[in-house]
Design a protein that fits this description.
Layout (H helix, E strand, L loop, with lengths): L4 E6 L2 E6 L9 H16 L5 E6 L22 H9 L5 E5 L2 E3 L1 H8 L2 E4 L4 E3 L13 H9 L1 H10 L3 E2 H7 L4 E2 L4 H12 L14 H7 L3 H13 L4 H15 L2 H16 L2 H15 L18 E4 L3 H12 L4 E4 L3 H20 L5 H10 E4 L10 E4 L5 H14 L5 E4 L6 H5 L8 E6 L8 E5 L6 H13 L3 E5 L7 H18 L3 H11 L5 H8 L1 H11 L12 H7 L25 H14 L8 H21 L6 H11 L9 H8 L1 H15 L7 H9 L3 H8 L1
Parallel strand pairs: 2-3, 3-4, 4-6, 5-7, 6-9, 10-11, 10-13, 11-12, 13-14, 14-15, 16-17
Antiparallel strand pairs: 1-2, 7-8, 15-16
Bound molecules: (S)-3-Hydroxyhexanoyl-CoA.
């Protein structure tokens, strides 16, 4: 195996190169290699300074996350970093790609940091339910001040080199070759010693916080609101506070104690699961990474409504020219105006340069001619959700699109096979279920039809990545994975209303549990009329021996479509999106319970959470055994990226694993006895519960 850390001398500077693809994570071997090479460099009399640099695409992306969960083996990160910091020769970190977590902590142990303009630095441990555990919470505030350090540590976002220089994290930006620049820098500082450059000795930036203890109280209050339910941001504040109140070495100890508590927490396990699950979703049995893909240089989107417009923006954001096709000039102009308005709003918020907006708008062309699709390598259909319209369109696309073009439908529930059957090239047809707003939401359910070609799957997964989305491959069924599960959840939430709860109680219980939004506020936002119109079409075929809640239909009959009509499950003040409890809805629900002969009872939050979340889990288990989802972790990714499920719960399937499937199954069986049909336990759930296994055991078996 190639050496993961190597030492060589270039002129009067020793160069330590970390070479541990793909991201130079600080594995045990890298840590040991660093110790050895630093010793070698310090012992090399001809080396007046040392440069630490990463080979390949990046500096160090942090600790090796795969090692968490096992006892931390020596050499310890703090030991290595102390060795760097207390060395007598100047040590320079030369950063490209990313210096993250333990990687930035190594750089903070160095006496100087130089970086190329495209480099990014960050302490993203909080996103894994952790805190920086190798001095980051102690050194960063000493380097850049308490408030900016708290922001970086509790939010975990990456900071670009330019901003990092302004903050004082980077000493110099290197244009051109990084190593050459770092060597020049090293020659300049060689012989200066390290006096004044050891961050541990600095006090000036934390002095102000020492006399302002309220700062931490205020920060905690803000974080409690921002990161509802999550432990690690609050514990990170404790560690930064220790940097201010304790001597450096004591602060380091405190940081490590908290790190050890967090690294074994369920929240951290859930967040690490979420991190790997997102990457694992790219692995598709039978479609290996070297599967040939089709080049996608141009795109067409049919329909410039809310979905089509958002999808077109996603292409333009990725630099792919896109033609949007509409049927009338009014609809086209309206759609393009919405796109322009969305970009303008981002510019107004300072998150997009006006020139970048012009460039993106320049990539979007509107037309009324369907024949324009002949130029496109991929065509995404985003027209009205009606089978007849979609079938007709695909028959036309089959005649017009160039051979080899990927033909994608953005249906959220219709049968992709039936759509593909309208063409003579079903191997080129695939579902791309974007989530609304499509330019913002990261999830795309990639729907594989019975005849979809392997190269088309590989091409579409890759394209989704190019669009900065998270693709998850699913099979054909009504509602695919996400919506099929959400139907069960919403239905159960409505039954709870009939039995004794009110919408605001259900929403609050689920929000307190961690969801971004409860089901009723969510329906009001999405528009209650969408499902109502579909249900009306389905009414004649609905089995009448099954429980059915009429409440959602009733509120639509009253014209309460949600936020857009200022009334839905809640009422809304004009121009406000804040949901307000409404006496009319309460009266409606009470009357409905009476009509059904249900004696209303107080319903505990715990029951609300179990009835709704386990409804997701039970349906998720069915989806798994039907092979609609490839793995339980894929279902988790769908819920984490598309439905506001709290990442620190890991997704519905991971959450069920943490509760214990025996317990989940027992509750599902109990609900079945009490409620009947909809709670029939999924056979897979029952089987795993009886065998004392978890959903994740199925995933690991697949390898
Ligand atoms: C930490 O540092 C704790 C310390 O404070 C204290 C310790 C005492 N370890 O994302 P990609 C793999 S906590 C192991 O597809 P990109 C990843 O699984 C850590 N593996 O590429 C994937 O593998 P595969 C703090 C890792 O270019 C491959 O690398 N650091 C790690 O889109 C490529 O990854 C973080 O939280 C890792 N640390 O993005 C950074 N990182 O090909 C986490 C990546 O088999 N990492 N892999 O699927 C990231 O944010 C992104 O991966 C990064 C690259 C931005 C680096």
């Amino acid at each position: 195996m190639a050496q993961q850390v190597r030492y060589e001398r270039r002129g009067s500077t020793g160069v330590i190169t970390i070479d541990n693809p793909p991201v130079n994570a600080l594995s045990k071997a890298v840590r040991q290699g660093l110790v050895d090479c630093v010793m070698q460099g310090l012992g090399d009399e001809a080396a007046k300074a040392l440069v630490v640099i990463g080979a390949g695409r990046t500096f160090i992306a942090g600790a090796d996350i795969r090692e968490f969960g096992q006892p931390l083996e020596p050499p310890d990160g703090n030991f290595i970093i102390a060795g760097l910091e207390t060395a007598g020769k100047p040590i320079i970190a030369a950063i490209h790609g990313t210096a993250l977590g333990g990687g930035l902590e190594v750089a903070l142990g160095c006496h100087y940091r130089v970086a190329v303009p495209s480099a990014q630095v960050g302490l993203p441990e909080v996103k894994l339910g952790l805190l920086p555990g190798a001095g980051g919470t102690q050194r960063l505030p000493r380097l850049i001040g308490v408030k900016p350090a708290l922001d970086m540590i509790t939010i975990g976002d990456f900071v670009r080199a330019g901003k990092a220089k302004e903050l004082g994290i980077i000493d110099e930006i290197v244009e051109g070759d990084l190593l050459e620049g770092a060597l020049r820098f090293a020659e300049t500082v060689a012989g200066r010693g390290t006096a004044g450059r050891r961050i541990r000795e600095r006090e000036d930036k934390i002095a102000e916080a020492r006399s302002n203890p309220v700062l931490f109280q205020e920060y905690r209050a803000a974080v409690r609101k921002r990161a509802r339910g999550q432990e690690s941001p609050l514990r990170s504040i404790d560690a930064v506070e220790a940097a201010v109140t304790l001597p450096f070495t004591e602060g380091l100890k405190r940081e490590r104690e908290i790190f050890q508590e967090l690294v074994t927490s369920t929240q951290s396990r859930a967040l690490i699961h979420a991190f790997f699950a997102e990457r694992e979703a790219m692995n598709i049995p039978g479609v290996p990474p070297d599967t040939p893909t089709r080049p996608i240089k141009t795109a067409a989107v049919i329909g410039c409504g809310t979905m089509g417009g958002g999808i077109a923006m996603s292409f333009a954001n990725a630099g792919i020219p896109v033609t949007v096709v509409e049927t009338s000039s009014e609809a086209l102009e309206r759609g393009l105006a919405v796109i322009r308005g969305n970009y303008a709003a981002t510019v107004a918020k300072g998150r997009l340069e006006p020139a970048a907006m012009d460039k993106r708008m320049g990539l979007i062309k509107g037309t009324l001619e369907l024949a324009a699709v002949k130029e496109a390598d991929v065509v995404v259909e985003a027209v009205f959700e009606e089978m007849a319209i979609k079938k007709d369109l695909f028959a036309k696309l089959d005649r017009l699109a160039k051979p080899g073009a990927v033909l994608a439908t953005n249906t959220s529930s219709l049968d992709v096979n039936a759509i593909a059957a309208e063409t003579a090239r079903p191997q080129d047809v695939i579902g791309t279920h974007f989530f609304s707003p499509a330019n913002v939401m990261r999830l795309i359910e990639i729907v594989r039809g019975a005849k979809t070609g392997r190269d088309v799957i590989a091409t579409t997964m890759k394209l989704a990545k190019t669009l900065a989305k998270v693709p998850v491959l699913v099979g054909v069924c009504e509602g695919f994975v996400g919506n099929r599960m959400i139907f069960q959840y919403i239905r159960e939430a409505q039954f709870l209303l009939e039995e004794g709860a009110l919408p605001w109680q259900v929403d609050k219980a689920l929000q307190d549990w961690g969801l971004a939004m409860g089901p009723f506020a969510m329906s009001d936002m999405a528009g209650n009329d969408v499902g109502w119109r579909i249900r009306k079409q389905q009414a004649p075929t609905r089995p009448n021996d099954r429980r059915y809640s009429h409440l959602a239909d009733e509120i639509c009959e009253r014209g309460r479509f949600g936020q857009k009509t200022n009334a839905g499950w809640y009422r809304y003040e004009k121009g406000s999106r804040a949901p307000l409890p409404d006496a009319e809805i309460e009266a409606l629900i009470l009357a409905e319970s009476k009509r059904l002969g249900i004696e209303r009872r107080p319903i505990a939050d715990e029951e609300i959470v179990k009835r709704t979340i386990y409804a997701l889990v039970n349906e998720g288990a069915r989806i798994l055994e039907e092979g609609i989802a490839l793995r339980a972790s894929d279902i988790d990714v769908i819920y984490l990226t598309g439905y506001g499920f709290p990442a620190w719960r890991g997704g519905p399937m991971f959450y069920a694993d943490t509760v214990g499937l025996d317990k989940v199954y027992a509750d599902v069986a109990r609900f079945h006895a009490a409620q009947g049909y909809f709670w029939r336990p999924a056979p897979l759930l029952e089987k795993l519960a009886r065998e004392g296994r978890r959903f994740s055991d199925l995933d690991s078996r697949k390898g």
